């Protein structure tokens, strides 16, 4: 008899259909199938969301803050234009942007709070496409030619301002007088409002022209640092030496891995822990398959003995129960795969629907940094989840099937 022949399939399918006295076994099998499906679906969804969360944060953090930060060691960066131009010419560098940065108290008609001011030239702001391409209101055409500021959407809402309104900046590093340093106060009309989609930046950043920032923060003719954006963020070691050689002056160099090491390491640890915890769901479902199959074998002992007496081999009996167990595992895995894929691909729409239904915020941007729930399905990871579920189902089926194949027909019929 060939492996998994028509007779073996017919017997296995008959065993999968419940009858009145086997209803309890059927319930266990159904729960096992549901458990495997939910485990696979949950694992796919969580892995997709974790991948999307990391990718979104990675893109947004490095899209604004750059991959390499250069700060002066031996004196102010008065030659920042020449240094930035030489670094810009390095193969593998997308752009090098000098900037002035300082913390201020910003106030508007509705509120006041802390903010981070960055001064950039008009050319560099246009090159910072991660911000310049995400303007919700207004335009950056007059940025640098007229006095004005470009602020984040959440900061604008908090201050109660829109295009054309004026915000007031207060810096503790003001003019030096015989009586000490007095705070510097200056007003800027809002020229544009941007939204990156990361609350930390949308509620904090203010961009003003470089020359005005230099005057405001007492840094005439110099800049705070130079940010370098690379083509390959993972190839920082090779790029670091090229930057040192091109700078032609001592610089303190720190890349994105050092600046965000704790944050991204925590994401990796959390992702791995979630994978282990959710795998236990599939493992519990697989154990249910073992218990259900063991009870089925015990219930079908007389049938097995009759099959053996009419010529069925131990291999045939083994294959019958393998089909029964694997059918539960395969069907449950396929249902979980379809369900998990559909939810992962529509996770943001589902979140918005639940939020509207319950009238509550399920994914607070202030808590999770992002304004939308991301999901990024990885084909390799999804395949690994499916293979793992099928493998656990197979392992859970082997022992009961082997036990059925080892049944002695003489002993079984005597017991009957």
Automatic annotation (TrEMBL):
Record keywords, A-Z: Cell membrane, Lipoprotein, Membrane, Transmembrane, Transmembrane helix, Transport
Subcellular location: Cell membrane
UniProt membrane topology term: Multi-pass membrane protein
Record-annotated MacB-like periplasmic core domain positions: 29-244
Bilayer-crossing regions: 23-50, 273-297, 317-343, 382-402
Domain ABC3 transporter permease C-terminal residue range list: 275-409
Chief subcellular location: membrane
Cellular-component GO terms for this entry: plasma membrane protein complex
GO BP terms: lipoprotein localization to outer membrane; lipoprotein transport
The family this protein is said to belong to: Belongs to the ABC-4 integral membrane protein family. LolC/E subfamily.
Database matches in NCBIfam families: lolCE
Protein name as annotated: Lipoprotein-releasing ABC transporter permease subunit
Protein's organism: Acuticoccus mangrovi
Lineage, opening ranks: Bacteria, Pseudomonadati, Pseudomonadota, Alphaproteobacteria, Hyphomicrobiales
